[in-house]
Each structure stands twice: as C-alpha cells, then as structure tokens.
Amino acid sequence: MSTSDGLNEQLVDRLKQGDEHALAELFSRHRDRLWRMVNFRLDRRLGGRVDADDILQEAYLDAAQRVHHYLEDPSKSFFVWLRLVVSQTMIDVHRRHLGAQMRNANREVSMNRPAYTQATSVCLAAQLLGAMTSPSQAAVKAEMIQQLEEALETMDPIDQEVLALRHFEELTNSEVAESLGIQQKAASIRYVRAVARLKDVLKRVPGFFDSQGPSHA
Amino acid sequence: MPEPTVDRDPVEFLAAEFVDRLRDGERPTVEEYATAHPQWAEQIRDLFPTIAAMENLKLDKEVSSGGRASLGPTKIERLGDLRIIREIGRGGMGIVYEAEQESLGRRVAVKVLPKQSLLDDKHLRRFRREAKTAAKLHHTNIVPILGVGEQDGFHYYVMQFIRGAGLDEIIPQLKHLAAGDGIEATPAPRAKRAYNVGSVARTLVLGELRSLAKADNTWGAGYESGNEPSSGTDSNRTALTTIAPDQGDSILIDDLSFELTDGVETSEAANPDVARESTPAATARFGMAYWQSIARIGVQVANALNYAHRQGTLHRDIKPANLLIDEGGTIWVADFGLAKAMEHDDVSRTGDIVGTLRYMAPEQFLGAADARSDIYSLGLTLYELLTLKPAFDETQRKRSFLHDSGSLEPERPRRINASIPRDLETIILKAIATEPDARYQTSAELSEDLQRFLEDRPIQARRANVAERLLRWSRRNPAVATLSGLAISLLLLVAIVFITAYVRTKHAKDLAEKAETSEREQRVKAEATSELAWDALDKIFDRLAPHRYVSPEDFAVVTEESADFNVNTQPVLSNEAAALLDEMLVFYRKLAKQGDDTDEFRQRIAEANRRVGDIRQRLGQYGQAQQAYRQAIAMYSQLEDGGKTDPKQAAALAGIYNQLGEVLRSSFKFDQARDAFENARAILEPVATKSSPPEVRYELARSFYLRVHRFDGPVPSQGPGFGSPNGKRGGSRRDGKGGPPPSPGEGVRSGEGARPRSNFRHVDDFGRESENIERAIALLEELTAEYKVPDYQQLLALCYAERPRTLRFEDRDKSDQSITKAISLLEDLVARYPENPDYRFTLSTVYTTGLYRFWQPPSEDELANIESRALTAAKLLDELHRDHPGVPDYVQSQLGVRGGLAMLFSCAGRFEDAQLHFQDAIRLYDSLNASETSISTSIRAIFTRNSYADMLLGHFRKVKEAGGEIHPEWLLQAREQLQACIDKTKPLADAGVDPRHQGYVGYLYKRLAAANAELGDEEAAAAATENMKKYLPQEKWGDSERREEWRPPGSDRGPGNRPRPPQPEPPSGDVERGS
User: Fold this and answer.
1) B806-829: average pLDDT
2) Phi, psi angle pair for B644, to nearest 5°
3) Contact A205/B at CB under 8 A
4) Average pLDDT, stretch B967-993?
5) Residue of B nearest to A44 (CA)
6) Which chain A residues contact residue B401 at CB under 8 A?
7) Is B431 left (phi over 0), alpha (psi -120 to 50) or beta?
8) ipTM confidence score
9) Burial call B518-554: b when 16+ CB within 10 Å, e when fewer
10) What pLDDT shows up at residue A153?
11) Which of B348, B393, B923, B925 is the mutation pick for testing A, counting most A CBs within 10 A?
C-alpha cells in the first residue's frame, strides 16, 4: 500500500521542514481512500446538499491549519491522522447541515458508527442484482436487499467497522489497528472473524451467493 | 512480496493480498489460494468468496451512491472548452454542472455521465444517435442540446443553461405550503443550485408565475460564498434578461423588473395578494390559481411533446425531475430521448429504474412505448402536482406490473382534495388511463383540453361511466379479449333489472293474492320475469366461465364436420372474474329465496357454485374452490332424490365430487380426496351401463383415473368443464336422453369398495392401480369412439400416460406404446384447439412422463429422448405461464420439469447439467410472486432445493473419495438450500400437525450437519445435530447410516420404514450411485 513506501516519509519530512506543497501532495496521495471513506459514511440525509468532494476540500483546509499538531507528535501514521481530520470535518459538516435533527452529531457520525446502516438499499441492490435486465427483476430483488440490510444490522458494530475499514475505505491491517487503537494481531484476527460472520449473514439472504456468480470462485 | 509476520493471522494476510490483486484488476481465484496454502485451504474457501463479494459491493456502491450518479473519486474541473463552475444537480443518470463555454463566453449546463453508463459501443452509439436527434428539436419548452463530447472516459452533453428548478424540487415545497408550514426556512435541498425553490412553489400556488423572477437575487449566492443561499441580501434592480422569446399562450409577464430586497418577505410586502394568500388559511392556498398553474404547466409540456412526437421523437422518461421551471415560469422539458438511451441492461442501476418506474406507462413495462406513453407519464406528473402525492407508490407499481395486470388505477384526485376542479380531474384521469386507447391520442388533444379548462370552456374528455370501466377492465384481461366486455356489463345490468323487477312483481303478487285480483296474471308475469332473470344470470356465467362444449351429443361421430364444433371459448382466468361470479351467486340465491325453490333452481345454483369452484381451482384458491363445491353438493343433497337417481344428475354430482377430490388433493388432503373420488364412484356405479349417457361413463372413468393418478409429477388440472358434459345448465336437462336408470346387474363394476387408508400419498397397491386404469381406459375408448368430445380424448390420453406406472417393469414396449398413443391424441387436440390452455398443459405433462420415473439411470438413447421431450414440455409451459400468469399449475409444472430434468441428469451422472437445471428451477421459484405461489409450488420448491442439496453433497463426497478436485461452493450451496428448506418446513413441524413433518425437518438438519461437518464448520455442525435430535426420534440419529442420510426422500420404496417428508412422492434419483 502507498503508506508503506518511503515517499510518504520523505513527504512528511518535507512537511516538517515547512514545505507547504508537501501537505497538498500527501493529501492528494491519500485522496482516493479519503474520498471512499467520506462517500461511504456521508449521511444519506445530506445527499444532494453536500458531497464527498466538498468535504474533502474543507478537510484539506482543516488539515492545513492543524498539521502542526501532527508534526509535534507524529506517533500515528500520517494517513491515520489525516483520516481523523477528515472525520472531524465530516462531523462538523453534518452538524452544520442537520443541526437540530442530530443533536448528537458527534456520536451519530462517529467513526464507530455501524457502517452498513448507511449502505442504502439501492447500492446494495446494485451488487445483488448482477445481471438485472428488467425493472420487474429489480423490483423483486429490492425485497432481497431489505433482507440483507436487516441481516447486516444483526452483526456486531465493531465487526462491521473492521469490514468497512478494510473494504470500503481500503485501510491496511496496521491502519485498522491504529484507527481502532488495537494491536495488529487483534485487528488481523478480528477481520478474519468478521468475514466469517458476514458470510453467515449473507448466507441468510436468499440468493446472495447465487447472484455473486462464480466469477471469483 | 512481504512475508507473513507473527503479528498477523495468516489467512488475513493472504486475504489482504487477494484483495490487493482484485483491486489491481486481476482475477485471482479462491482455488488458487486454497491450493497454494493447503494448511488454510478450508478457511480460504470459506471466506474468500465473501471477501470478493465485499469488493464488488464497494465498486457498485461508488458509482451509484444513494441512487444518484457519482463519478467516483474523480473531480472534474474542465471538459474541453467548458470550464466547470459548479454542480447544479444530479439524478440517477448523471451529474449536471453549470459551466462556462469559454470560446463563446456563455453559460451552459453540462450533464456528465458516470463512466460505467456507456460501457459498450452499442450504448455509446445509441447515446450519440439520441443526442443527435434531440439536438434537432427546437421548441420553446424543450431544453436545447448544444453538443456532446467525451473526455477521460466521461461522456457528456451540453445543454442550454436554464435558470430554474426541477418540479421534483418544487413538489416538496408545495407540500409544506399545503400543510400550512410555510416555505421551509432552511436552504433549498440542493444548496448549490441557490435557487429559491420555495418561492417558485408559492407563485405556483398563487398562479402568479411572474414573481418567480424575484428568485433571481439568490443566484450566485451559494455554496461558494460559505453562506446559506437564502440569506442573500443584495438589494438592486435586476432586469430579467432571459425571458424565453415566446411566452406562449399561458404566461404573461407584464412587469419584467422588480424591486428586490430579501426574498420571500419582500415579495409578500410588495404584493398584497401574496401576503393575504399566504396567511395560514390553508384552504385558500390551493385555489383556482393553483389549478390553473398546473394546467399551464401541462399545456407547455404537452406542446413540447406534441412537437417532438411529430418529429418522431419520444421522451420516454417524463417525470417531475425532467421538467424544469425557470424564473419566467416557462417549463422546459429536459433529456429528450436521452434517458432511455443511457439506460443499459448489463449494469444494475436500480435507483434509476425504480425512480422512474413511478411515472412509467403500463405498456412501457412490457417494452412498448409510443406517444401515448409520454402522455401517460405527463398525466401522472400532473396528478402528483394536483394531489401532492404520487399517483402510485413504488410498491403498488411493483405489484401491478409483476402481476402483469396493469389494472392499477390511482385514487381519484377529488377524493384526495375535493376542491380540485372536476374538469381538471377528468382531463388527468383520461391522460393516465391504463389502456393507451382510452387516453388522449395526441399531446395536442391533451394540450387543447387543458386550454379549454383554462378558458372555462367545456372539455372534450368525458368521465368514464360504469359500462366503459367494465369494458376497460375486460380489455385489460387478455382472457376476456374474445368477448365483449360491454356485453357482460349489459347482461349484468339486464339481470339486475330483471331480478329487481321480479322481486317487485313477486311482492305485488303477494299483495294481489291478498286482494284476490288478477292473481293468475300476476303469477304469469312473475314467472316470466323470473325465467328472464335466471337466463340472464346463466348467460353471464356462460360468458365468464363457459363450459367447453355444448353437449356430448354435439360431438357424436356423425359427420366429420361436427367433430370440430367450435365451442372452445377460453374460460376467464382472473380473480376479478371469480369475484364477479361470487357476487352473482348472491343474485342466484336471492332468486331462489323468492319462493321458486324448486329442484330446477337448486340445480342451477349448484351449477353456478360449481363453476365458481372451477375458476377458483384453476387460480389455485383451493380453500374457496372447496367451499364452492361443497355448496354445490349441498344443493344437490336438497334435491328430492338426493340427485342420485337421474343418471345425468348423478353424473353432474359425481363430477363435482371429482372436482372436489382434485382440490382436496391439491391441498394435500389425500384421505379426504380419496373419499371424494370414492363418493363419485359410489354415485355412478349403480347407474352406469354401457348405454348410459356419456357423461356418466366419463365421470366414472375419471374417478377411476383420479384414484390411480399419483401426485408426483405435475398434475394436469381437470379444470372446469371437464366434469359435466351435460350442456349449459349442468344437470338441469331432463330430456330423457339418458334413458332409464340401469338395473343393478348392468352396472359397471368398479371392483370393490373402501379399503384401508394408505399413507398420505393415497396410492393404491399395484394390482388395484392397474385394474382401475384399465377400467378407465376401456370406458374411455368406447366413449371416444362414439363421441369426439375433446375432453374425453384428453382424459383417455391421460390414462394412457398413466398406464406405464401400473405396468411391470418388463413391459417397456407396452409403456412406450401407451405414451406414444397419449402424445398423439394430445397433439391432435392441441392442433384442433390451439387456444385451449388445458390441452397444451396436458401435452406438456405427458411429454415429461419419462422424467419422473427413473429408478435406474436411463440409457443414453432414452436419456436423449426424455430430455428432448422434457425440453419441449418446458417450452410449452413457459408459453402457458406467459399467457396465463395467474395459474399455479403451470408454474408448478415448470418447476417440476426443471427439477425433473435436474434429477435425470444427476442420475445419469451429468453433474454440471443437473446443476444448471436445479439452479434454473430454484431461480424460477424465486422469481415467482406471492400470487403465483401455492402450497404445491412451495413444496415442489422445497423438494427441488432438497434434491439439489443432496446431489451437491453426494457429488462432493464422491469426488472427494475419488480424489478429484472438490469445490467447497458445492457445500455452501447445499447448506444454503438445506437452510431454505428448513426455514420453510420448520414452522410446519413446530405446529405439530403431523409427526412426519418433524421427521422431515430432522432429516434436513441431519444433512445440514453433514454439510457443515464436510465444510469443517464443527460449531455449525454441532448446532445442526442438536436440532436434528430435537426433531428426529432417537433411533434415527445414527451417524453411521451415512448411506441413508444421502438418500433423497422417497427413494426407499419400502413401506413406511422411516418418516416421510411432508410432500408427495418426489421425482426420485439415486444420488449415491457412484459411491
């Protein structure tokens, strides 16, 4: 992964030396993954008002203002720190836009929020439908998706979180460990266990593995 | 490649690598990892498919988050000559930006499509073609297309920039207004649009579109400024410079400039009307001005459509989001023809389709669209503006087109809001008539009528009266297509009039009797009226639920021509018809109650009930069918002789018992079914002779046949009309043709009476089966020689088809001959009566004969023969299901044939073929909606899944033992199928109705445990074993009897040595053969 190469450290070094371009470069190196995180976790109610790009833009400004905090104590990897900044920005944006609707914005958008509850039926549908050819099929399958969502909600939130970090945000194992404040080994074991649980959940959704098709099997 | 470290779970480490490769676009296989790392192979096989699924999930999610388009993590800043200024909206299909075309220095709107949306050349070509066509449209109310382009894989098209909002944004604001909330104070839902949607809504309500111009002050105050868009405080004089050149006939802008200060408040201050109107008096909000606004919108869109339609271009996706209203109040239709061009079949875009579904015309679901479809969609949009709620929600929509009825009619707008003008309602209802023929035929007509409404002139559309609605109803029901719906409604009307008249005269008669005046005259009149009423009712019944032939005499072999007497009107197969007939039964009873409680009328009522039962049976509504048959039987029992002396009456009554038996059997009440068949036999035997009326012999043959017929293959429904070939009026004929009751000695012997109950499959023992079928065949061969009644021929064919089962195994030749005879009889029938679904259906079942009987694998030749017949059957059944989607028998047989083919191949050792057919069967089942699913289909589905799981498990073990390449997917599949079976059967077992159910569930758990054990999932295996113990008696636990575990239910032919699954004898196959 991009975080493990030397370039990252070089950039951080340049940053320490006061090179402002380094931050932009670092940010753009991680932009895809950050975008994924925001896109994944953006509250549905904000759909149409704010999108991931807006939040990233704002987060970049926040990061620029706060980067000295990181430089004073670079115990975390830069990406994990950046991700924290972005998540804070997200919380701010949510709070600003949803206001009274979410008094406890902090908790609601917290990074431990069960990620799947955000996965809309529509995007899951996209996955499940496979070769959907007609509206009628789509409609039939929409019910399946509902079942899937319900099934996912029965999973342990931490398990969901680990899966979300690994797959939807594309974090590495060590980044997951860092983000959740656990040992690498624990993160690793937890992930394997979470996949096993997910598999059990998916199995309960009729036709899920059918529709996956044999392409990866 | 980095090495695993002690800090990582090795499987996690491998998973990370696997995922990285997937993300790099490689296609690593699960097996590849399992093979390379045997020590973790099991976990890899278990988990990696899920991991791959997660990655797929993410990809799809990113291109369509929340049903809206997204370009993924890419940010677009420039497209060729276009400098992107900001995003102004996004729909399912693309993102719209405001942009500056730098070379011309003008503002444009550009819609950028996600990369995935034009995946192949075909779509791309289509997109370009449509864009070209759309670019040729020049109309005041159509957003002009300026060009198309492509950059970095993003396709886009450029449109004139319209300063406005989609009606989809306006509607929520209108709702706020209607609710008396006032305009939402928060920024408009799309902040970046910076358009005061609320004020547009308000002006729509006020019918003063000109004040929309005020919204201008919020332009540009938007997201970039970091302020809430509605807080713009500019106070300057702005002239409207972008008025469309032709304001058309509907909107007059008499004052183009405004003193602008602060949005809404000012507008209220500046305009006393506004201020008054917007006070909380909610009723005043939606006055005539609002209705007129809607009509104006309608006129403009209809004009645009009319123009485009005349150019040969359909829009295909008219919906609020595609109708923009600009500051001048002009409506702009966007995305002409392009919506459809961008819809593609291979990438799933549920959001789009479901979103659009709401406004789609019924015929569009079937892939047909014309100008009238656009009119329909516009109608629905106007409906929504009118009532502020969608005409249909998506669930309704879904349901209606799944059921293929299209018979959905929205609530009348005036029922939602009584202040909606009647004429406007009429216009809109006409635009959204389900039948395209009932709509406005051109947009010009619609536009004209809306114009009339605006000018207070009488509109052209008429409200549909009851007769028309009935007519439309019957048109929508294809089965009634052959008859005139008007005729039905007229008949019904006549019947009601007569009945009322009769009841009145009867009443008058009573009075008259008291007065002892003209008693005779009154009575004659009453009788005449009564007769007319009965006739009218009978006629309606005949129309809706016809007997398939007039009488056997018509088919007597006299001349060749008479053989093809055309009486095969298709019976109507619809819930509506059944419900209508049910209601008519009330009239029958009313008539009967009025004193003319004679045997004749009882018979008529019995007959009417029977026909209702027939329709219910076909629709798989077995409970209701049973009820109707029992009513009919009850009526007969009230006859003087119990309806058993007169041969024809006896035949009619026995026919009802046979029908009842079939219904009972379909409900798995085998004992009761047997009793019903037994009753039929007991009624007929005393009266049957060689010279009995044909119907007597036919019903008797039928009761023999039905007793033999096993319920394992798909059961051909005997259907309505089979049973009582005695003319239009059931047993009411008393023309004496039946001859005198036979003397007991001449009776056709049936063998013997009741026998001990067999198991729930109601199978006679071997010898008895043979005797019964031969008896039936003898009777029918005689009958068909005398009468060319198609149903006699059909039953004979069925008996021939049934015969092989009663033959010894050595009699293969005789079996084959019998089947061949059956097929040729049926092919003849299908050729003569191509419209009749029953004959096609029966033929399909006979084609599948060999399919359900293969205790040992067929030879290659046989296999090929059986396969080709079965595939023909499958084709017939698919057609039948398509033509008659409401008939569960057809569906069940479809399942049966596919399941049967699967079993056949599984026995023949053709695992892959078997697997495909199993999957087809299961997929078919999954695609059924609730109304198509009967108990029988569910059971068949359970059995199919069960057999599939058994085969997968068996195959897995076989391959494993042989040291071949095994696939854990087999086990996963098996497990899933077993789980599905358990989910379905467990409630039944838990209800504790029948210990066999528990036994079956126990066996399912046993298999599940085995599958889990093979998968190495010890925990799950243990859990399943626990469950097994709960359901299965202890002596059946034995883990050592592996062989038995795998045996598909029914494959042990010993009598009841273990619990049977609660299902009919399934197609059987020896899955374990190889091991």
Assistant:
1) 81
2) -110, -5
3) no
4) 81
5) B66
6) 135-136, 139
7) alpha
8) 0.76
9) eeeebeebbeebbebbbebbbbbbebbbbbbbebbbb
10) 65
11) B348
**B684-729, pLDDT tens digit by residue?**
888 888 778 888 889 999 998 888 765 433 333 333 332 333 333 2
Tell whether A197 lies on the interface with B, counting CB pairs under 8 A.
no
Q: Which two tokens stand for residue B854?
A: 């293969």
Tokens of B746: 């001449």
Question: Measured between alpha carbons, how far is residue B343 from residues B266, B317, B338, B383 in Å?
Answer: 44, 11, 9, 26
And the tokens for B858? 């067929």
Query: Which distant-in-sequence residues (6+ apart) come within 8 Å of B2 by Cβ?
Result: none
CATH architecture of the domain covering A2-108: Orthogonal Bundle (1.10)
Q: What average pLDDT does chain B have? A: 67
* pLDDT at B443 (0 to 100): 93
* Greatest C-alpha distance within chain A: 61
Inter-chain touch B348–A138, beta carbons under 8 Å: yes
* B942 pLDDT higher than 70: yes
C-alpha dist (Å) from residue B923 to A206, B103, B915: 11, 56, 12
Cα–Cα dist B668/A159, whole Å: 46
How many Cβ pairs within 8 Å bridge chains A and B? 201
CATH for A115-212 (3.40.50.1000, 3.40.190.10, 3.40.50.720, 1.10.10.10): 1.10.10.10
Instruction: Closest CB to A184: pick one of B7, B30, B365.
Output: B7
Query: Per the structure block, which two tokens stand in for B973?
Result: 């599949």
> Given B75, B348, B929, which is nearest A129 (Cβ)?
B348
**Cβ distance of B354 and A188 shorter than 8 Å:** no
CB contact under 8 A, B64 and A206: no
Using DSSP, state whether B392 is helix, strand or coil.
Answer: coil
Domain ranges of chain A: 2-108, 115-212
Q: What is chain A's pLDDT, residue by residue, as a tens digit (217 residues)? A: 444 456 777 778 887 777 777 888 888 888 888 887 787 777 655 655 677 777 888 888 888 888 888 888 777 788 888 888 888 888 777 777 765 454 443 333 333 333 333 332 233 333 333 323 333 344 444 455 555 556 666 677 777 778 878 877 788 898 888 888 888 888 898 899 888 887 877 676 555 554 443 333 3
Instruction: Write out chain A residues lying below 8 Å of B929, CB-based.
Output: 140
Phi, psi for residue B478 in degrees, rounded to 5: -55, -30
Task: Kindly tell me if the per-residue pLDDT of B69 is higher than 50.
Answer: no
- CA-nearest residue to A51 within chain B is B70
User: Are A142 and B9 within 8 A, CB to CB?
Assistant: no
Chain A residues inside the 8 Å CB shell of B9: 185, 188-189, 191-192
The mean pLDDT of B332-356, rounded to a whole number, is: 52
For residue B104, give the amino acid letter.
Answer: L
Percent of chain B with pLDDT over 70: 56
The token duo for B792 is: 């006699």
Cβ contacts (< 8 Å) between B56 and chain A: which residues? Answer: 127, 212, 216
CA separation for the pair B532, B525 (Å, rounded): 11
Across the range B288-306, mean pLDDT stands at 91
Going from the N-terminus, what domains does chain B have, and what CATH number goes with each? 10-63 (no CATH), 70-160 (3.30.200.20), 164-285 (no CATH), 291-319+358-464 (1.10.510.10), 485-728+765-824 (1.25.40.10), 848-1046 (1.25.40)
As a three-state string, the secondary structure of B281-344 is CHHHHCCHHHHHHHHHHHHHHHHHHHHHHHCCCCCCCCCHHHEEEECCCCEEECCCCHHHHHCC
Q: What angle do CA B62, B66, B69 make, to 5 degrees?
A: 60
**Whole-number Å distance between alpha carbons of B163 and B729:** 71
A100 touching chain B per CB within 8 A: no
B905 Cβ contact list (under 8 Å, min separation 6): B911, B913, B914, B917
